[in-house]
Amino acid sequence: MRITVCLSDNNRPEPWVEGLRRELPQAEIQIWTPGAALADHAVVWAPPQQFLDEQQQLRGLFNIGAGVDALLNLRLPPHTRIVRLDDAGMSVQMVEYVCHALIRHFREFDVYEADAREGVWSYRRPRARRDFPVGVMGLGVLGERVGHAIAQFEFPVQGWSRSPRQIDGIRCFDGDQGLDGFLAASRVLVCLLPLTAQTRGILNRETLSRLHGGRPGGYLINVARGAHLMEQDLIPLLDAGQLAGAALDVFASEPLAPEHPFWRHPKITVTPHASARTQREESVAQIAAKIRALEAGADFDTLPGVVDVQRGY
Ligand code: NDP
Ligand code: OXD
């Protein structure tokens, strides 16, 4: 069995190759170079089209991230199946990020930080959790775990998914018909959707104005993909007070340009796509286990994280 590794965006392939060689000693594992021998499986992040045009025999394309939107923009070899990371250490980081952003906003720690810089000793009036219901868009591997964690902090939690779900402690909405009720019941909105044709631009003036029944004071946490947000709609909503703030980890164009107004807006917190980083050891182990299962005769459709190309995630 031959495995090729093709990683871009500052991901060094060498440690991945070493890890995979340790996990799969019988396999021939190489870093991809143009013209390399055809492989059975590939471990990739944002590979160039040339890679896929050459590697026409690939059975499995193992993405070292959870989102596959960039891969689905490429022309795939005819029989290749895409497998994404299924948690692999990301959900606990997402929980940390989202709960931190939510609690920082709810408890007004940003205001205390500003006061502390000025040496001001001043209490904020306590706020009630029931006034800050949280809506999680996307109840998949990451969204469901985040929803449970928020519920542990006793915020009312609802979730929205494509297909109907029943999850203890989370009020579930689904589909286009469920979106209205979901938005109306959510004051803080967390986006954990995959980027697909249906979800692109879903965070926009119209949807964000429907938060909490149209009342001002909504808060946005986008940790999914930048293209979920219509970026030009955000600052007017913040400046008008319709939204109280936003924590953004992902952007339409990354890295975020130094002159982008999001960096300096007082109600926006920016992080550099760092909410849940790929954990190499766990990811190598997960990918190797899936390759072993396939080599032992398992069907792709039995693997967690196998992508349905038509659905887009
Ligand atoms: P999953 O595929 O496990 O979950 C996706 C969820 O979104 C499912 O609940 C799905 O519904 C729902 N969904 C998809 N399309 C729609 C739609 N049209 N309407 C309503 N709900 C929809 O993904 P993960 O939880 O693993 O990851 C989610 C995303 O998080 C990734 O795609 C990636 O873009 C992003 N991400 C960002 C990271 C970062 O560092 N910022 C790190 C990792 C991931 P259903 O349950 O019905 O299928
Ligand atoms: C991912 C990401 O999709 O890092 O895993 O955004």
Descriptors for this entry?
313 residues, Rossmann fold, five-stranded parallel beta sheet, 9 helices, single chain, binds oxalic acid
Structure description:
There is one protein chain. The protein has 313 residues and is α/β, with parallel strands linked by helices. It folds into two domains: 2-88 and 278-302, Rossmann fold, CATH 3.40.50; 90-270, 3-Layer(aba) Sandwich (Rossmann fold), CATH 3.40.50.720. The protein has helices spanning 13-23, 49-54, 90-106, 109-118, 141-152, 175-184, 205-209, 231-239, 280-295, and strands at residues 2-7, 28-31, 41-45, 60-63, 81-83, 134-137, 157-161, 171-174, 188-191, 218-222, 243-248, 268-270. Strand 10, helix 8 and strand 11 (243-248) form a beta-alpha-beta unit. The protein starts with a strand and ends in an 18-residue tail after the last helix. The model has no long low-confidence stretch (mean pLDDT 98). It contains nine helices and twelve strands. NADPH dihydro-nicotinamide-adenine-dinucleotide phosphate (NDP) binds at residues 66-67, 90, 138-143, 160-163, 192-196, 198-199, 223-225, 249-250, 273, 275-276, 313. Oxalic acid binds next to loops.
What would a concise description of this structure say?
With 313 residues, the chain is of the alpha/beta class. Helix content is 31%, strand content 17%.
